[in-house]
Amino acid sequence: PWFLAAEQGDPAFRDFFRWSVDDPVETGPWGQNVWHWNSSGWFYGLFWSGMPDLNYDTPAVKTAMFNSAGFWLDTVGVDGFRLDAVLYIDEDTGQMQNTPETLQFWQDFNTHVKGVNPEVLSVGEAWTGSNTVVQYVIDNRLDLCFEFDLSYAMIGAANNADPGYLGSKAAQVYDLYPYLQYATFLTNHDQDRSFTVLGEDLGKAKVAAGIYMTMPGVPFVYYGEEIGMTGSGAHEFIRSPMQWTAG
């Protein structure tokens, strides 16, 4: 509804999104088109045209999103948030990720949600290298971030029966972050499922699970991993429903 109102020129919502009269001809971090055209002009959407990005340079956007977070915490009663694509909140010309404004946003967000519920937990998906990820947990930003580099090392160690690189990577991660403020995992909803990556080898799957459930960090299970669900390729295969039965 916000975008439809903005598209129709509603002054209350127009600046909730980024618009341009001309095509800015910018491409995204993986070479994708980020500006998309419709009858109302060119609009910015990092991931695809059906997902226009909010414009966090507009104060009303920040207020609306903080109010939404407060509703989920106070009225619905959730215990925290898993926050997607935290690198891409507030972009600058020529820089679409890890901007100073993005880092400041998460600091402000954390202050707001802790004010609603001091026990709230936030975990961010910052899909990048460890040295960049850590920026999202320092200075009272998010509580945790998923450690992708460490996940690759764990999968590799289990697959290749070689713990060498994993040992050095685990030590680096442990020393890099504020005490235990990182989330361990094997794969997520955007990746081929771990049991598939491990060749559907039960022994390797148990080794991988044993590693990430017992090493330092806060472990997260992608639903289905605990029963060995498989899947690769398109999202409908890696995000298939939880198999509560064998049907």
Describe the structure.
By secondary structure, the protein is of the alpha/beta class. It is built from 9 helices and 8 strands. The longest helix is centred in the first third of the chain and has 18 residues, at 59-76.
Summarize this structure as a short list of keywords or feature phrases.
9 helices, single chain, three-stranded antiparallel beta sheet, 247 residues, alpha/beta, three-stranded parallel beta sheet
pLDDT average, as an integer? 96
Report the end-to-end length measured between terminal Cα atoms.
Answer: 39 Å
SSE sequence, one letter per element: HEEEHEHEHEHHEHHEH
Rounded to an integer in angstroms, the radius of gyration calculated over CA atoms is 20 Å
Biggest sheet strand order reads: 1-3-2
Q: What is the helix fraction of residues, given as a range? A: 25-40%
Topology:
Blueprint (H helix, E strand, L loop, with lengths): L1 H6 L11 E2 L14 E4 L2 E4 L14 H18 L3 E4 L16 H17 L4 E4 L5 H4 L10 E2 L2 H13 L3 H13 L6 E2 L9 H4 L4 H13 L3 E2 L15 H4 L9
Helix pairs in contact: 2-3, 5-6, 5-8
